[in-house]
Structures are given as structure tokens and as C-alpha cells.
Specification:
alpha+beta; Thrombin, subunit H; 2 domains; 6-stranded antiparallel β-barrel; 6-stranded antiparallel barrel; 7 helices
Length: 293
């Protein structure tokens, strides 16, 4: 058998495979499911922020000249009680002694300006914390678009720490209100807090402290938490700061699941909110009163 024709035929076949056929396309890498998931969640959160931010209002409360008599008496009693507890820090005791006459002179006056957050629950009504507007002489609001609004306090419930405000003056139409969610919130739900925080380390730079609405996220870590008030609270790790009080705690659909009210001190870094069902009952009770008062 001659090898020449066989080798020649093999050469023609190999040459034809390179000359007549295109190189196969590279196999694309397998698609990861992580990137589309994150992209979709990011888009949903961004849409949530854009839709709900207009309904959130920054509150500025100028207080009455004098504290309510009950607050003054309670403050005096607290300082007198401090004199009966010399332990554990002896070096504090002289300061406690001096605090009593100092409070007798300055205690009646309330010269503070408090700030917080509120949100629309109807075209005319806003919900916030009672401690934000406590003893307020005037309450003004700044919407996310920069418009100013004059507000009046309709009703407060210090036990629930809730207050209802009414718009008395606003240029233009009110934004679409937020809806209090009817379904009960569950542990593990993803939630977002909207508000106007004023962080201490930014206090010397007002252009940053007044930058606008912030959105922070976390999960609901506890429900039905008893903190000694008239209701049981939600606990979340969504960051809250001074100024967030009264702002909404939202689910992924934009429904209000709670009203931000306080944060833990120390290293706990937990935040607390009044459940939406408590806020709804408060609104229904207030609106059922004559003239809503």
C-alpha cells in the first residue's frame, strides 16, 4: 500500500477544515443570577425612594417661652431625687447640689428649637411624634421640593407618642399621601426609614446637615416589644438619628409599617418604631372626635 495518496488525502482534509470552515464561536460564560437580582432590587429601592420622598416633611418647632407646669415640677423632682442618691460617683454629688438652685431659676424657660419629620396621611393631615411638637408655639414644615408649609397641631397623644398636624398654608398642591399598611409586619421584613436626620458631627456644616431626605435600610428584628409605653414597638436595624423622629418606616411596596420614634443608647444600635396599626387606630379615634380635635 502506498502512503503517498493517503498522506495527501489527509493533508487536503486538514487544510480544508481550516480554509473552508469558520472558527467556532467562543462559548459565553454562564450567567450569574446575583447581578440581575441586585440590579432589580436596586431599581425597586430607587423607585421606592422617588415615589415616597415627596410625602415626607421636615419639621421645625419653635417652643413656648415657658415649660408646662407639669414638666417643670417633674424636672425639679428629678433633680431633688438625685440628691438622695450619692452613689456611685461621689464627684458628681456637688454638681447635683448646684443643679437644684440653677434649675429653680432657669427651669421654667423653654428656649429650645426642636426638629423632626412628619409625613402626609391625607392632603391636609400629617403624622409625627408627640415629643417632636411638644410645647411648640409654631410649627413649620419644609417639603422635599423646598416648599415651606405652616402647620398647626390638631391632636397629640403623649402615651402613644403620636401627633396629628394640619396644613394651614402651602403654596401649590400637596403631595400624594403615604398609606398605612393593613397587614401586620413580620420579623425579617426588609424596611426603609425616610427622614431628615441632623447628625451631631455635621452640626457645624449646615449645608450637609440640611441636605435633604435620607433613606436608610434594614430589617425588622423584633415585633411586639414592650418598652414601657402605651403600645408595643417594632425594632429594626435601619439607622435613625436625631431628626428622624416622626418619619415613616416603609416596606418594599411603599406602605408605612411604622412611625420612627426613638433609638437605643450605647452600643446596641437598635431603632424603634410605633406599629402602623397603632397609628391607624390613633387617626381613626382623632378623626371621630368633634371637629377632629
Amino acid at each position: 500500500m502506498r502512503l503517498g495518496p493517503v498522506l495527501g488525502f489527509a493533508y487536503v482534509v486538514v487544510l480544508g477544515s481550516f480554509a473552508g470552515c469558520a472558527s467556532p464561536a467562543p462559548i459565553p460564560p454562564p450567567q450569574s443570577s446575583v447581578a440581575p437580582l441586585l440590579s432589580g432590587l436596586s431599581a425597586q429601592v430607587a423607585s421606592l425612594a422617588a415615589e415616597t420622598t415627596p410625602a415626607v416633611v421636615e419639621l421645625t418647632c419653635e417652643h413656648e417661652l415657658l415649660h408646662p407646669a407639669g414638666d417643670y415640677v417633674a424636672g425639679l423632682g428629678k433633680r431633688v431625687a438625685g440628691l438622695l442618691q450619692p452613689l456611685p460617683a461621689y464627684w458628681e454629688y456637688p454638681l447635683r447640689v448646684l443643679a437644684v438652685p440653677f434649675y429653680l431659676v432657669t427651669g421654667p424657660f423653654d428656649l429650645r428649637t426642636t426638629r423632626g419629620t412628619a409625613f402626609f396621611v391625607s392632603e391636609e393631615l400629617l403624622l409625627t411624634n408627640a415629643h417632636v411638637v411638644h410645647n411648640a408655639a409654631t410649627v413649620t414644615g419644609r417639603l422635599a421640593d423646598g416648599r415651606q408649609a405652616a402647620l398647626v397641631v390638631e391632636h397629640t397623644d403623649p402615651g402613644l407618642d403620636l401627633a396629628l398636624l394640619r396644613i394651614s398654608e402651602l403654596d401649590g398642591d400637596a403631595p400624594a399621601p403615604l398609606q398605612l399598611r393593613e397587614a401586620r409586619v413580620l420579623v425579617g421584613e426588609v424596611v426603609f426609614a425616610l427622614g431628615f436626620p441632623r447628625k451631631a458631627y455635621l452640626s457645624r456644616r449646615r449645608e450637609l446637615a440640611d441636605a435633604g431626605v435620607t433613606l436608610t435600610g434594614g430589617i425588622v428584628s423584633l415585633v411586639d416589644l414592650d418598652l414601657g409605653g402605651d403600645c408595643r414597638y417594632l425594632e429594626t436595624d435601619a439607622a435613625l438619628n436625631y431628626g428622624n423622629s416622626g418619619g415613616p418606616l416603609l416596606d418594599l411596596e411603599g406602605g408605612v409599617v411604622g412611625v420612627a420614634t426613638m433609638v437605643a443608647t450605647g452600643d446596641t444600635r437598635a431603632s424603634y418604631a410605633i406599629p402602623a396599626e397603632v397609628a391607624r387606630e390613633f387617626l381613626e379615634a382623632v378623626l371621630a372626635l368633634p371637629n377632629g380635635r
